[in-house]
Amino acid sequence: MLTISLTMSIIRGQTCGLQQNIDRDYFCDNPKFHCLVAEIDNKPVGMILYSYFYWANDGEVLWISQMFVEEEYRKHGVFFELIRILRQENRSIKIVSCATSRDNKRMQKILKYYDAHEIDLKFYYKYNIEG
To answer: How remote is the C-alpha of 2 from its chain's centroid?
Structure first.
């Protein structure tokens, strides 16, 4: 049986750097992200990690930073159920945004299925804004 919960329990105990980031950024008074986890028979099989930001022209935006379904559970509706719950929990959000690599054709196909539009932007990032 597929169940979806808003949790972070499956991520604890992963690699040291990841665990430190999660401990600091999620298990705190003002969490910086949310995570939906799909479980089948109490086994985590997929997740969507997301947060919010603001664009002056459009208002609040839901940013999906990571999506994953264990390979053996793909094509069993897990991802679509995660998206359904995400949409249900965020009815007031008008814009959802995410990025994917050029090579991730599977995700691009799924995003187009949901009528997502590709935009021509370049993303830049810097790890340490002080330096």
So the answer is: 18
How far apart are the C-alpha atoms of 75 and 62, rounded to whole Å? Answer: 25
CATH number at residue 105: 3.40.630.30
> Dihedral through CA 62, CA 89, CA 72, CA 64, nearest 10?
10
Domain membership flag for residue 87: yes
Describe the strand order of the beta sheet including 2-6 as a list of residue ranges.
2-6, 34-40, 43-55, 59-69, 95-98
d(CA 98, CA 32): 16
Domain boundaries, position 24: 2-113
What would the pLDDT profile of 39-94 be if each residue is shown by its tens digit? Answer: 888 888 999 999 999 988 888 999 999 888 999 998 889 998 999 999 999 998 88
Q: pTM score, two decimals?
A: 0.76
- Run of H or E including 19: helix 16-25
Q: Looking at the domain assignment, is residue 131 inside a domain?
A: no
Closest to 87 (Cα-Cα) out of 57, 116, 109: 116
